[in-house]
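In this section we walk through a basic example: taking a raw amino acid sequence and producing a predicted 3D structure, encoded as discrete structure tokens. The instruction is simple. Fold the sequence below.
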Amino acid sequence: MEKKGQLSPSGSRQLNLKKSFKLGVRSLLTACPKEEFSKAFPKFTMLEQEVLHQLFVQVITSLHGNIEDEFESLCRETQVGTTVDSVEEHVQEQTLDPLYIDKIFCRLLGKAEKQRSSMLYRVATLRKEMQELSATADALYKLRSGILKISNKQVLLWWNLLLV
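The resulting token sequence is shown next.
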């Protein structure tokens, strides 16, 4: 059982995801020190630089909040928590099931057998088609030879008739 105040593993993973996102956003959107900010606007007076820097800090702070709120909203809409839980459950099943790798191997082996059968069927079909094409080619050759023989005989007959 979980103790009060203690998160489940999946809850802690969701929290870690959100913390990581916030850290990433903060590192990307960090406020600039006044000295650096003043160097970027050397032609402004000190008062103008101060006002600009305060405005900059307000914008960055607001941007942080908006981005974090949008991230939270997207997490809810896309059910990130449910997905993280599902992934965690799947990982635990793999860890707890000593036959998991065997099951995966058997599935892959089954797919390979189906592909092999399909390829053997295709090869047999192609061989049959090749035999049929060969028989057709032989028949065409014999027909052509017969036509040529008939034609040669006719030419000889015509030649003989002309000579007489």
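Looking at the output, two observations stand out. The two ends are 120 Å apart (CA to CA). The chain has two domains: 9-96, 98-164. In the next section we compare this with other chains.
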